[in-house]
Amino acid sequence: MSDVARSTIAFEGRFARELPELAIAWRAEEAPDPQLLVLNQPLAVELGFDPDFLRSAEGVRLLIGNAMPEEATPVAQGYAGHQFGWYSPRLGDGRALLLGEIAGADGKLRDIHLKGSGRTPFARNGDGQAAIGPMMREYIVSESMHALNIPTTRSLAVVATGRQVQRESLLPGAVLTRVASSHLRVGSFQYARASDDMDLLRRLADHAIERHHPSAGDEANRYLALLKRVISVQAKLVAQWMLVGFVHGVMNTDNMTVSGETIDYGPCAFMEGFDPGAVYSSIDEMGRYAYRSQPVVAEWNLARFAESIAALIHEDEEQAVHLAVEALNGFRKEYSATWFSGMKAKLGMPEEIDDDVASPLVDDLLQLVQETRADYTLFFRSLGKAARGEPEPARRQILDLAAFDAWLERWRALSPDAEAMDRINPIYIPRNHLVEEALAAATEGDTGPTKRLLAAVCDPFRERPGLETYAEPAPESFGSYRTFCGT
Q1: Within a domain: residue 75?
Q2: Nearest residue to 138 (alpha-carbon basis) of 2, 269, 291
Q3: Closest of 323, 313, 73, 334 to residue 189, by C-alpha
């Protein structure tokens, strides 16, 4: 690595240094012909990287872990997890690698992490590789979520490796460079607890407090406070998913962060026609992670987190359980408050409006939308026009016009704020047919559709001429939709 590049890039190794029991020193596999497919220049600048350097041959090799500073200590992280309800005691980064932490321009520490960088000791029977399509999906959807102001890991780059990956057919391989405030998960705590090493569990909890919830450290029971903070950020996060119609698809405990960021965009999708039972994961045959089930699953996952740190909360098991259950009881209240406040905002209603007025309006509208399976994003966006006296775009999406007209009269009597609605109801989301078109093109070497889709979804609230295609539902010929994790 050049002296200039070395002087401007400093990977810290806090996780590797402070929690060596959860880390295995490892290196990314050498890519035979790395080629940059897409670079997130604003994020690169935010992190203190020189985008021009990252576009260079040496910079591209840095992005996939093939040209690291000498002092860097990349590691594969260990964690456990409940996957579709079944406990796996040893999962870990089977095809991923934590390169280290970077202090960004704002001084905050962020992980630089790879997906698809090759087999690690956690790989089990996997090949450690990733194909271009799934890595591009994560890039598109995570950056869309960021633009929607939803806490999320982010994507810095996707680099083609020049290596073929065997799935149902041979596909060109790629590595995603992911950025997160950390990769600490509920599964990290399950792994530490299963080791029966209380010192490790305590150090992990202290690491999480210092990195994500420092105010918890000021409280008398810092570990109970940590539990409450994680419950709070996750309740708010899942409520935000529900408000935009996002279906995560694989809400295993190893995919729930302590920070409250969305992580792992494998079998995920934005719901189009409103369907509480919407499932997009090819492997979720029982609908465990359906749209409507996400709050319930989040609460279940948080109970597993509480179990993992209960021994830190109180030395008496009965008292620890009592305190943990009391904390978990706050999830539904926090989730409901966040969701209801967000729904009132989507309808342009003032925050202080009486719940006895707002609640029936919300419930009645969602019933009408569900009966028609109206396009969730398009419908709420069209309500902004209805607030301006143009009800037809919304009306033509509803079957029971008499009921909807009566609802409109009640709602418009409250003088909804159309401008505020347009600031919270997106017009552009990563619509599934457009994502698939972009991924197919990128697999064939054409990143143009991906970049055009990103231009739309990364500025989701501002309607722009020429982007009508990005606001339209999928054609009927698109049919039912299923996504795959890509392993």
Answers
A1: yes
A2: 269
A3: 313
28 assigned to some structural domain = yes
Of 358, 391, 416, the residue at which a domain comes to its end is: 416
Q: How many CB atoms lie within 10 A of CB 275?
A: 16
Residue type, 13: G
Specify the 3-state DSSP secondary structure of 80. coil
pTM of the model: 0.95
Q: Give me the pLDDT at residue 126, please.
A: 85
Residue position matching structure tokens 């989301």: 429
pLDDT of residue 6: 41
Looking at 146, 180, 214, the residue that finishes a domain is 180
Assess if residue 47 is contained within a domain. Answer: yes
Tell me which residues are annotated as active site. Answer: 254
- Cβ partners under 8 Å of residue 377, min gap 6: 244, 245, 270, 272, 425, 426, 427, 429
Residues spanned by the domain of 358: 349-416
Query: Which amino acid is located at 43 in the chain?
Result: L
Rounded distance between C-alpha atoms, residue 394 and residue 62, angstroms = 49
Averaged pLDDT, groups of 10, the chain, 487 residues long: 54 96 97 98 95 96 95 96 92 96 90 97 91 97 98 98 91 98 98 96 98 97 98 98 97 97 94 93 84 98 98 97 98 98 97 93 97 97 98 97 98 97 98 96 97 98 97 82 61
The enclosing H or E element of 166 equals strand 154-166
